[in-house]
Amino acid sequence: MAVSGTGFYPSSAQNAQNYINVIRRNFTPTLIYQNVRKAKPFLRYILERASKPTGGGFSPITQPVTGQTFGNDGALSDWTGSFTLPGISNPIQNAEWNQALYIQPVVFTMPELSLLEGKNADPFVVIDVIKARLYDKYQSVLDYLSGRFLGTNSSNALDFLGLGDIVDNGTNDANYGNISRASNSWWNAKVYTNSQSGAAYTQVLYYLMSFLNDTNAPLPSLGVVSYSVFYALMTSFTNIERMYIQDPKGVTNERSYEIQALDIGGVPHIVDPNLTGTTGYYLNMDHLDFRFNPDFFFKMTDIADLQPIGQLGFVQNLSVAGQLVSDAPYTHMQLASMPNTPLA
């Protein structure tokens, strides 16, 4: 409904409707999303830097792994040079994953198409709702992937795996990659629950050092935390430490500081608004990637006619398929009950 009776425009008593009937609105030719979508930094990192195509076949993602040596059967010998022949062992087994397939249908009717994109319609259309819908469906797919990659698929075997399945010790995913974590402790990620006190960043540093002490893994590539955790970590540094975090050129000119990523113990921490709660994930990105199926990697199908089911309209499907996997879960760490500050 057009707004009337404000500014120098007529009110209802001044025949506003008569003018509205013959004068078009002056639309701004853009559609602005109002607090609908959140940024997805972790998903962007995965799609841009940690994605690999995978082939077809059954269990298309198959990685031989072993958590045992082939045996150390060496021994000292005497003057005779005698030794005992060892038995032959083969501790290798396969980690296997199937791909998940996500389909986002896009539907529009012939009357809608005629109204927005039909003959002689262009001069009257500023916002093409069909194009906006296509874009929105694409964003919906990204939202879904972001939520799944930061979560767990324990309730749906058809779903994508997430950090809750990968950085786990059997609580969420007892048979990760079809390998039992209860029977193969080397297939577990390190899971800690914070019980430290003191400055927030020193609490995290304690568990990073514990992780290096408890495993043979290298230092994680990055930590992914929520805003409440990130804020607590950021504000736990002393004033002089904050000074060195900022751009040195600005120290003498300004008193504020800006942080894009927080470094603790050599691990950059990024904040993802789609991750909530107080659990953080510390990841080795050399052992985490999205194995995507090129046949369904953000592919849009051809337009299909809906008339056979009794509707003048069309449908297209946007699809994505693959799986988020790690070939070495022990190189990742989960830290629960991280220091946090409730935000407004």
Report the end-to-end length measured between terminal Cα atoms.
35 Å
Report the radius of gyration as a whole number of Å. Answer: 28 Å
* Tally of contiguous helical segments: 8
Mean pLDDT, as a whole number?
89
Please provide the count of β strands: 15
Largest sheet: 6 strands, mixed
Structural class: alpha+beta
Spatial strand order of the main sheet: 7-15-11-8-10-9
Shape: elongated
Q: H/E order of the elements?
A: HHEEEEHHHEEEHEHHEEEEEEE
Instruction: Please state roughly what percent of the residues sit in beta strands, choosing from under 5%, 5-15%, 15-25%, 25-35%, 35-45% or over 45%.
Output: 15-25%
What share of the residues lie within helices?
10-25%
Could you list the spans in which at least 5 consecutive residues all have pLDDT below 50? none
